[in-house]
Amino acid sequence: AQKITQTQPGMFVQEKEAVTLDCTYDTSDPSYGLFWYKQPSSGEMIFLIYQGSYDQQNATEGRYSLNFQKARKSANLVISASQLGDSAMYFCAMRESLSGAAGNKLTFGGGTRVLVKP
Amino acid sequence: DAGVTQSPTHLIKTRGQHVTLRCSPISGHKSVSWYQQVLGQGPQFIFQYYEKEERGRGNFPDRFSARQFPNYSSELNVNALLLGDSALYLCASSLVPGGYTGELFFGEGSRLTVL
């Protein structure tokens, strides 16, 4: 079974509008972390936002917010006021067992390509 | 401040050859991880090193190996290259493995093409 599922392969968004990128995950580990990364055409994975499984509040970082619904196992990324520079691939990822030895083993979804239209 | 740097940025090899990819973490970071990203897919975890010891390994054959040096830089080696090894190889660094801050910093990757 897929551990991280991103069901939207691609989407268009109008500049200055908000966009929601879907991410569902599957884990039996009570301690996990959820990440969103942006990957422009240069290839670099740029960290956007992080949500820990025990965090009570949804994470926010500037124009990025994470809509964390633990019971539904979803961690959707909301980008507000889209800009042309937001055009990129976006990946959702999960890290299980925060205290484990391989603390940097992330499982990534297949990604969503976002194109912002002027 | 310099971010994670990787070299070479692009390279072309033929089947059966060997390749070495290099990564310098952010200054002060002691943990380095390697990921393989095949075109059109998300990255897949290959290795993690911390304080020069292997801390985790993904589902990759023994043709893949890595090491971390005293200055915390790292090398990824792939022997007997196959066409399917063509991918973007990403290196990531962090202060320590895991933790609660969440941030894992990636380089721009080494794009390997196997002909």
Discrete helix count of chain A: 0
> What's the average pLDDT of chain B?
91
* Secondary structure category of chain A: mainly beta
Q: Identify low-pLDDT runs of chain B.
A: none
> What about the largest sheet of chain B?
7 strands, mixed
Strand content of chain A: over 45%
Largest sheet of chain A: 6 strands, mixed
* Rg of chain A, Cα atoms, Å: 14 Å
Which word captures the global form of chain B? globular
Largest interface, and how many residues on either side?
A-B, 29 and 32 residues
Structural key phrases:
heterodimer, A: 118 residues, mainly beta, six-stranded mixed β-sheet, four-stranded antiparallel β-sheet, B: 115 residues, seven-stranded mixed β-sheet, 50% strand
Tell me about this structure.
The complex is a heterodimer of chains A (118) and B (115). Helix content of chain A is 0%, strand content 49%. Chain A has 118 residues and is mostly beta strands. The mean pLDDT of chain A is 91. Chain B is 0% helix and 50% strand. Chain B is mostly beta strands and 115 residues long. In chain B, strands 2, 4, 5, 6, 9, 10 and 11 form a 7-stranded mixed β-sheet that branches. Chain B has a 4-stranded antiparallel β-sheet with strand order 1-3-8-7, with no helix packed on it. Classes of the chains: A mainly beta (118), B mainly beta (115). Chain A binds chain B through residues 4, 33, 35, 37, 42-47, 50, 52, 91, 93, 95, 98-111, and chain B through 31, 33, 35, 41-45, 48, 55-58, 88, 90, 92, 94, 96-109, 111.
